[in-house]
Amino acid sequence: xxxGFDIDDTLINLREYAFGLYQEKLGRKVDxxxxxxxxxxxxxxxxxxxxxxxxxxxxxVLEELYYTECPIYPGAVELLxxxxxxxxxxxxxxxxxxxxxxxxxxxxxxxGFPVADSRFYCGMKDAEKVHIxxxxxxxxxFDDKPAVVEHLTRGSLTxxxxxxxxxxxxxxxxxxxxxxxxxLLSKNRN
Length: 190
Ligand SMILES: [Mg+2]
Description:
Blueprint: E1 2-5, H1 14-26, H2 32-37, H3 51-60, H4 62-67, H5 76-85, E2 89-94, H6 101-110, E3 120-122, H7 126-135, E4 140-143, H8 146-149, E5 158-162, E6 174-175, H9 181-189
Parallel strand pairs: 1-2, 1-4, 2-3, 4-5, 5-6
EC number: 3.1.3.-
Pfam families: NT5C (PF06941)
Protein name: Nucleotidase
């Protein structure tokens, strides 16, 4: 089967890592409960920033976010390795800016993710991402972002949400931890 994965906040805990980094850089402590209640992807409102200031802040720490110690969600690497061993095709689709494609791919490989160069897509807008996902004729696709998931309508594709505070209004199947995937796959087989 063909499995497609978003990267940020699906396989790796980027926003929460950024939340910690912002506190460090700004010298401000924000209670984690506020982070876990956010109903939007962006985190800057927790620090009283406007969207413009938030955009600027995000870009100023991007290198650090992408290429240092961002934690991977537990079990994600092992699971994808297992899927690959079982003969499934693993695709990655990330909307990170295109200039980060090669380094992101290298970083993912360094973390142990099974990455085939020809199955790695980077630097697209949400609408284009939807188009690529549909064209690849994936069997499963995993993402956290409502703006992507809401537009995936091909009948034979099973879309699974990585549970996040800002996507709970959607009724798609969801997983909070990667160890929930195998039970979900076997349920779908029966
Ligand atoms: Mg994401």
